[in-house]
Every structure is written in C-alpha cells, then in structure tokens.
C-alpha cells in the first residue's frame, strides 16, 4: 500500500513574522514527507515578488500556490500531484480567501478524475460571515470534469483549514461543546456563538452546512468507525484564558467517495512558542485513492454521520 500524508496547519502569522521560526516550522513538516500541505495565515508571503513562497517551496521541496490577498496556500509534491486548474475567484464573502485548485493525482493515470484541493480560513470575528463563507466553501464540492468518454461528472474534493468554530458532536468520544461562560473574554464569546431559537449556543453552523453539502469531517469519521482512534479528534488549539477550553477548530473535510481512502487522522502537537495551532495530519491509502478516481462516479455513496 502506498501512503499519502496531508498536513493542515494554521501557522500563526506565518511563523510570527520570524524567518528563522518559519523555516524551522516547515523543516518539521518536511520531515514527515507530506504530499500536500494546506496552510493558513500567510501574511507577507506575497511581498518582494513572493520571496517567502519560494523560500517555503525550497524548505518543503514542494511547489506552492498562494491564494488571494496572501491569506492561505497549498503546497504539493509535484511527483504526486499536478495542478490542472486554479480557482482564483473564490466568491464575494471571504475575509480571508481560500486557495482552491483542481489537481491530478499522478499515480491514478491521465484518464482518472482529478480532485479539488483547498485551504481555507473562516472569519474570526463574525459568525454570520463564517456561515456565508462556509456556504461558499460548498461550491468546491460541486466542480465538474469531462471524462475521456465525454461524460461530465462531479469530482471529489478535499478541503482543510481553520474553521474558527466547532464541530457538531456526534460520537461518544467527541469533546463536548464549550460552555459560553467558560470563555472569559466577553467579545470572544460573541465571536464564537450566536442566538438561536432555543437560546444562545456555540457556533457549529459551518460544520452543519458542510455536512449538508456532502462534505465529511475526516477526523470525526475516523474516530467513529470500527477500529478508529480518539486521537483523530484531539484538540487542535489548547485552552487559554481568552478563548476558553481546548477545541478542535482545524478540520479537513472530504466528499464521501474519498472516505474509504482515509487510513489515519491525528494531531501533531506544536509548542506555543511556534504557533497557537497544532498540525492536523491526514493519511490516505494512495492505491485506493487511485482506484476511487478511476471509477469516475456520477454520484456519491451515502455515509451516516
């Protein structure tokens, strides 16, 4: 079985604007030999002719694509993935626009379906804006491709990022949602919650929108299936006085047909001196991924949540 590793990481302010820290952080990622890296918080990466992007490409040994306004990025191992289309028009609602690409998985062959790969960062301060952004994010699960036989089909999607919100708990191992009063910073209470008919509660609406659109939280899926591990749903941010209890706000979502290729999900701890987010790691069975992309489905299998 060939194995693919995907990293999803919100590296705080692109290494806290410290070039040495930024290089060390990406050297740590490179040790894991990822095929894809989905990055968030890229300020300054477009300065000086995108010099920082070329620096990171060199450290990772991967090619990088920087999204609009230097907010997010995708890096790919060019021996594994090749881009066949960029999607620079991300919709009108984004405060921090995503990076979205249609990519070919080379081991699957040239007649296989490509897939959409995206890195996103939902809004920090406004639950209303986050909800609209999540709705626009669903458009990346609705891209089409014409097969060699002339049939137009919907292609799979893999999207990862910082949701600035919470997953809807579904299993026995899923951490409970934070209580509103456990967040000591009052403005942040407003940032992470909203008024609903049954009273104010923590914001899970982006997760609900993505699931409704056929996008599945890989960590939750892996933890809940037989033989799965609760390591998959470990927190991606630690508890702190302002933000409240530890939480799993960084998540990767895939369309249902990709779920069988997921072999592991875990969280790589990162010291606070480097970033306020940990690294979410997804492992895929590369052979099964190739098989899935060669089936050229016109629909998606159904998976219970």
Structure description:
InterPro entries: Endo/exonu/phosph_ase_sf. Keywords: Endonuclease, Exonuclease, Hydrolase, Nuclease. GO terms for molecular function: endonuclease activity; exonuclease activity. The chain is of the alpha+beta class and 305 residues long. The chain has a single domain, classed as Endonuclease/exonuclease/phosphatase (Deoxyribonuclease I, Chain A, 4-Layer Sandwich), CATH 3.60.10.10. It is 24% helix and 28% strand. Strands 3-4-2-1-16-15 form a six-stranded mixed sheet. Strands 5-6-7-10-14-13 form a six-stranded mixed sheet. The longest helix has 14 residues. The protein is globular and about 55 Å long. The C terminus is likely disordered.
* Number of extended strands: 16
Task: Note the gap between the termini.
Answer: 27 Å
Strand order of the largest sheet: 3-4-2-1-16-15
Let me know the largest β-sheet: 6 strands, mixed
What is the class in the CATH system?
A: Alpha Beta
Radius of gyration from the alpha-carbon trace, in angstroms: 18 Å
- CATH architecture heading: 4-Layer Sandwich
Total count of helical runs of at least 4 residues: 8
**CATH topology-level name:** Deoxyribonuclease I, Chain A
Could you tell me the mean pLDDT?
93
Q: CATH homologous superfamily - what is it? A: Endonuclease/exonuclease/phosphatase
Kindly report the oligomeric state of this protein: single chain
Protein name: Endonuclease/exonuclease/phosphatase family protein
Keywords: Endonuclease, Exonuclease, Hydrolase, Nuclease
InterPro entries: Endo/exonu/phosph_ase_sf
GO molecular function, one term: endonuclease activity
């Amino acid at each position: 079985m060939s194995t693919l590793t995907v990293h999803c990481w919100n590296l705080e302010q692109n290494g806290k604007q410290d070039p040495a820290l930024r290089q060390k952080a990406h050297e740590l990622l490179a040790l894991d030999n990822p095929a894809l890296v989905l990055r968030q918080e890229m300020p300054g990466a477009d300065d000086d002719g995108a010099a920082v992007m070329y620096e990171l490409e060199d450290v990772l040994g991967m090619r990088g694509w920087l999204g609009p306004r230097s907010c997010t990025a995708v890096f790919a191992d060019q021996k594994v993935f090749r881009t066949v289309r960029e999607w620079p028009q991300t919709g009108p609602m984004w405060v921090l626009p995503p990076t979205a690409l249609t990519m070919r998985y080379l081991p699957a062959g040239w007649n296989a379906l490509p897939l959409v790969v995206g890195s996103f960062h939902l809004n920090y301060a406004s639950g209303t804006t986050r909800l609209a952004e999540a709705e626009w994010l669903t458009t990346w699960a609705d891209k089409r491709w014409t097969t060699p036989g002339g049939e137009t089909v919907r292609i799979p999607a893999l999207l990862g990022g910082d949701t600035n919100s919470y997953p809807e708990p579904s299993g026995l191992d899923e951490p409970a949602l934070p209580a509103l009063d456990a967040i000591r910073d009052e403005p942040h209470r407003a940032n992470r919650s909203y008024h609903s008919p049954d009273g104010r509660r923590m914001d899970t609406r982006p997760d609900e929108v993505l699931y409704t659109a056929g996008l599945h939280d890989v960590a939750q899926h892996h933890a809940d299936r037989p033989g799965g591990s609760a390591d998959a749903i470990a927190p991606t941010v630690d508890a702190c006085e302002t933000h409240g209890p530890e939480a799993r706000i960084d998540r990767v979502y895939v369309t249902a047909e990709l779920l069988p290729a997921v072999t592991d999900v875990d969280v790589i701890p990162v010291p606070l001196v480097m970033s306020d987010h940990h690294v979410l790691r997804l492992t895929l069975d590369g052979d099964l991924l190739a098989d899935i992309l060669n089936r050229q489905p016109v629909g998606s299998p159904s998976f219970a949540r």
